[in-house]
Amino acid sequence: MRKYLTELIGTFFLVLTVGCTAIKPMPGVIPPLAIGSILMVMIFAGGHISGAHYNPAVTLGVWIRGRCSLRDALFYVVAQLGGALLAVSAVSFLRGVETRTPVAPAWAPAFLAEFLFTFALVYVVLNAATARETEGNSFYGLAIGMTVLAGAFAVGNISGAAFNPAVAIGVIGLGILPPGTFFFLYLPAELLGGVIAGIVFRYLHPED
Questions:
Q1: Is 43:11 a contact under the CB 8 Å cutoff?
Q2: pTM strictly above 0.90
Q3: In whole angstroms, what is the distance from residue 16 CA to residue 195 CA?
Q4: Which of 1, 161, 188, 194 is positioned for an S-S bond with 61, CB 3.0–4.6 A?
């Protein structure tokens, strides 16, 4: 339960930050910096307890890599989605409930953007936080947070830069993106990125 609660808390603050900076967009570089920063500090806060996935695609990649049991993976995803839904309620209370016009991204570019940077994120997580050669390092949280930061700058205006099914549920729940995009764009693109990253890690580290 300590691990699952840690996943819920970390995902909650990640989605809370995304929601608060995305509903009434902050100027310039503030949203990517805020999102990358909260992810980094929550990883440092919870990494020693749960591994600090805060992302079902990361959990999938870690399970394929062999560092997470199927039981833990399922409960991690439940905790992550629970944290995201709690964050939606908190953002709605903080920012107020209002009618928003969802922004519909172009499907093919958004799918590719979400796939590529989810792959990059899970690839960095597996290599910086789970590989035998980097065990015990002090930089993994920074590496992971900076990956999301870079992705948000690179493709934020193409896909919204979720790279995370829990985040996608959050922004869709807040009315920022159309509901249908979750199952037909964000979820398949992000899970595919996690699967491919896990397979690539196993190929690059056959001894691990």
A1: no
A2: yes
A3: 26
A4: 194
